[in-house]
Structures are given as C-alpha cells and as structure tokens.
C-alpha cells in the first residue's frame, strides 16, 4: 500500500470513528439522500411518478423474525431503516390543498409506545422530518387514503412485487396493506399467463378493490435508473465502503494468524465475525462461506459444518456490512500454515490471473476486461498442467464471472458497461477441482478463490482490501505470527 493511500484511509477511519457517548456518527447524511432523490428526479420524464416500498419483515420461526434489513434502494434515497414505508417521488412539483408546492412524500410507521417497547423506538413523522430532512412525512395509514391521482401521470414507475410479505393484524398500515392499497389505486393486475389459465386472469380482473381503470405503469425502467445512480460512489459512500472492506480484510488477517488444523469451519467463521463486531460492523453482508477442502468447490457453501479442517485449503469468502455498505473479500489459506506443492501451483495460478484482472480496471475499459484477462491465464495454466484437454473445459473449473459491483448490495446494481471513476468492484478469479474430477487425483479437492475490492481511480486501480495478504509466501509468513486468540480456551461441555 502506498503512503498516500495509507494516510487517506487513516483519515477516513478517524473521521468515521464511533461517537464517544452513544451511537456511531458516520452515517450517510440527510443531504446525501436528498441529492440522490434529486438525481433520480432528473432522470424521470415529465409528468411521471416513482413509487418505492421498504423491505418486508421476514419470519424466522414462529414469533421470531429475522433481523430487519431495509431495501437498499429505499435506504439509498431516504436513510430510513424501518419497515412499513413508502416513498413517492414526483418528476414535477405538485400542489397541495393549501397551494404549497412539493415533489416528494415519505410515509413511515406510526409512533406506537406499546410496540416500541418490544421492537425499538420508531422515528415517526417528526423524526423523519428532523433527522431525514423530509418536509412531507406522514404516517403510513395516510397512504391508504392518499388521494394521489396516479391515473393523471404519463407513467408510474415501480419495481414489480414478489408478493412474499405477510399481513400483520397488529399494524394498521403494514407493508401488505400499503401495497394492496397501491395496487388498487393504480388498477394493478398481477402478471398471469392468460393462455395457460384464462379463469385465473378473469378472477384477477374482477377482484374486489381492483377497478377496470388502469394507470400507465412501468416496472422495468426504475431499476435501470437506480442501477445507473448506484454504480458510481460518492465520497460519503466510499468512506463507509472502504471501512467495510478494511474490516473484512482485518478479519482475514486475524484468521490467518489464528488458524490451525484442529479448528472447525464454524469456529473459523466465528473469528471473522467477531473481528467485524469489534470494529463496529452491524452485520455480515451475506452468509459467511468457509469451505475446507472439497467443500470449497461449492461456490455458495454456507453450512460450514466440517468439524476439523485438518490439512486442507480453507476458502473463506466473507464480508462485513458497515452502515449498509458491504465488502466482499475472499482468501484461501492452508490450515496447517504451509501450501502443499499442488496447492501452491493452483493458488499461484489464481493469483497470477487476479493480478491480470486487476490491471485492466481502468477508466474506459469494458467491464468484461477483467474476466477475459483472468480467464485467459487460468485456461492456459490448466492446459499446461494437463488438468484440461481443451480450452472449452476451463469453464468447468472456473464457472463464475470475475467482477461485480459492491455497495449497499454485495452484488450491487450497475449498468456493467465500462469502468468509471469511483466505481468499486470485485476481482475474484477461482479454480475449483471437485473430488472425482476427470484429471489426476492429486488435484482433487483443491479449491482456490482470491477476491479483492478494487476502486477505480483516474490513475491506477486501488486495492481497498490490501491489508489481507494475497501472495502465497506472504500468507505463510503471517500464519507463523502469534494470534491474540491463541490463549482463548473455553471449558469443555462434555
């Protein structure tokens, strides 16, 4: 890491430090969210309206829900992190009954002391105005009778519904009722194959609350608008994303020092996630992947159930989420601290491919350039090793793409055309040789992926996850170092 970058990152971390007295003070500002809404408004044609709904609460088991996570687009535009909410953005100024102009409305959960005692303090309308900067914020039940004439707009933009939300008897305006009301207000009909079952379509058309009149709607364009906005990061976003990435890289470092053959996959996962929490990360950005040996050949292996990693390579694909922004960092290390000859050959080949992919991450290059560069090296390498007989076979051992955007989603939306300044993307080539593969047995069960988060700059690409060693020799050197967890022993339970 160069000195200038080191100073920049240090300043970022200092400026984003946890407030001394209570909660973090480095969330995205209300001004950021306002500017993002304005940027979206500029993309919208005249006389159109965009409608966003927050994410539903999701049930884990019986009366226990999963930890709530806001829809990334909704959070990006509002900063609001509670369920049962609606955002309306108008392309042009509207006029209320008092003759006052407005161009957006936020509907939020109503304050409810009894409910808040169980599930936490709600922001409410006043909080939405004061904290989030919305001039027009109302309780969700007001949306049920909003009086918005959606039929008068040239187009109503929204993302189509997955219909996987629940009806809550405790909430007068839960997401189920909000979406139901919206469908009624626009004359929404669910997509149905009329040829396959005309009776179902007729039933939908005649459903109670759905009029024969329909607003002109568009469920595709809004996703494109949001993808084009979110693929390039602002300075505020880069500060949070850089912190998430560095936290994830530190998790990889500490795990390298703590690793030994007697560990389980779950224990290794726990070290990563413990480090995340120590640095103030709220969540994991996605289910943690820790696959030893042949388990690493399963790309999205999340069982993490192997009791001893023994002398296997351990593929660790994990990412911390910090204030909504998610890293995605993968390292593959030998559990015993030393690569075997076969493991090192495959590892170094993937490293060479990654270096070639990173080198292409420059303004104006095609988004596919990193994949092509990495894939060429891996294909040629596998041919030389005799693992494959033809170039076409390479895809069997390197089946995924090399790069994707990261941000509020681990696979962040984007247009995926060319690299632009202040994009952040992964470069993650891999080789996976499952047991019983059609090659020499000595290669079986070797799985290697190296993944880093790369910032596109006006000059050379910057590896934000460089704190975690990538070279095989550097990994082996770090694994010799003592870990703070070496003396952390718990009493046996059986």
Supply database-style keywords.
2 domains, Creatine Amidinohydrolase, Chain A, domain 1, alpha+beta, six-stranded mixed sheet, Creatine Amidinohydrolase, 494 residues, globular, single chain, disordered N terminus, 16% strand, three-stranded antiparallel sheet
Model description:
This protein is an alpha+beta fold and 494 residues long. The protein folds into two domains: 3-227, Creatinase/prolidase N-terminal domain (Creatine Amidinohydrolase, Chain A, domain 1), CATH 3.40.350; 232-480, Creatinase/methionine aminopeptidase superfamily (Creatine Amidinohydrolase, Alpha-Beta Complex), CATH 3.90.230.10. Helices cover 34% and strands 16% of the residues. It has helices spanning 3-15, 30-43, 72-78, 113-119, 124-130, 140-143, 175-186, 198-205, 221-230, 235-258, 265-278, 341-359, 369-385, 394-397, 472-480; strands at 48-53, 59-61, 64-65, 86-95, 101-108, 137-139, 155-157, 217-218, 283-284, 289-292, 313-318, 320-322, 325-326, 329-334, 424-427, 430-433, 446-449, 452-455, 462-463. The strands form six sheets. A six-stranded mixed sheet has the order 6-5-4-1-7-8, with helices on both faces. Strands 9-12-13 form a three-stranded antiparallel sheet. A three-stranded antiparallel sheet has the order 10-11-14. Helix 2 (30-43) packs across helix 3 and helix 12 runs antiparallel to helix 13 (369-385). The model is unreliable at 1-20 and 192-211 (pLDDT under 50).
